[in-house]
Amino acid sequence: MPKTTPYAEQLKRIPVRDAVIDVLATSTRYWEYGKSDAPLTLVFVHGFRGDHHGLEPVVANLSGVRIIAPDLPGFGESSRFADRRHDIENYADWLAEFTRVLGIEGTAVIVGHSFGSIIVSAAVARGLAAPRVVLINPIAAPALAGPRGILTRLAVAYYRAGALLPARLGFSLLRNPMIVRVMSETMAKTRDKKLRGWIHDQHDAYFSAFADRDVVLEAFKASVSNDVSEFAGHIDQPVLLIASDRDDLTPIAAQQRLTSLFAAATLRVIPNVGHLIHYEAPADAARYIQEFVGRGDL
Question: Which of 157, 231, 236, 253 could make an S-S bridge to 121, C-beta 3.0–4.6 Å?
């Protein structure tokens, strides 16, 4: 069991319910935080290899809104796609259908973190109606290009090996706690030992909650072969980008270029944080979101 979250007391004050619905023939579990009659609904889309737990620290710092946080197909407690690849196009279609099934399409603000930022951008660009869009640690440039391209290709080889090895060995490789810890150590920038330990515990608990090896490989390929810049020019809604100055995946210069591609975008930069804004600076992220969406009077 993971250690108690530092935001436990805040989360206790927020009503929470969970349910399972069928979306594109996929069993999708989601969590609903806040009052069901709140004036505004936000949909939270988590990042690669995570699940809804990752964005709970941001949830804990928001007030006066209703938040719906699903586990992406193939991750957490949602089943994998039965007859679709786990790529950006299919995830975007799933997200649009998810909001339609819940009856919130066109009224809910859509929020995506990291890999979720690509899915959200693709869905909105393809026609998902939303009054506003929020992207946290958005993937602003192709991971396979530039100085980090070689490291990305090594990661592709790692995930491919995990998929091709015999089942037991493949799962052991993909879920190897030492590799998960290296990833966590690399991403975490905080010097607070207690917070850093909790972040590692979160990754230990939830970073390997995927349906099977193929899901991880397909989703990873999608995460490194696509980026938000592909879709920015097709998004007319107001967009809030929440970035950080120590993000190893996307430098600030790329975030600034990305901001200029949208019709109407605002960039907020949180200092001394890396790719884990949702863990290291959730209160800042929540404050920027709250300022952007108000109290529901969109």
Answer: 231
Gap between the Cα atoms of 192 and 217, Å rounded: 33
Taking the C-alpha atoms of residue 145 and residue 225, their distance in angstroms, rounded to an integer, is: 9
- In terms of pTM, does the model score above 0.90? yes
Contact 80, 212 (CB under 8 A): yes
d(CA 286, CA 129): 22
Of 48, 240, 60, nearest in space to 156 by CA:
48
177, HSE (Cβ side, Cα atoms, 13 Å): 5
Place of tokens 């007030």: 63
Count CB-CB contacts under 10 A for residue 73.
26
Tens-place pLDDT, residues 215-240: 988 998 898 889 999 999 999 999 99
Note the pLDDT tens digit of each residue in 243-258: 999 888 888 999 999 9
pLDDT in tens, 179-190: 888 878 888 899
What mean pLDDT value characterizes the chain? 90
Full strand arrangement of the beta sheet holding 265-270: 16-23, 26-33, 66-70, 41-45, 109-113, 133-136, 239-244, 265-270
Separation of alpha carbons 228 and 279, rounded Å: 22
**H helix runs in the chain, sequence order:** 8-12, 56-60, 88-101, 115-125, 149-164, 167-174, 177-187, 193-206, 213-225, 229-232, 252-261, 277-280, 282-293
Residues 189, 46: Cα–Cα separation, whole Å: 20
Residue type, 7: Y
CA 262 vs. chain centroid, Å, equals: 20
Which residues share a beta bridge with 110?
43, 133
Residue with tokens 């966590």: 184
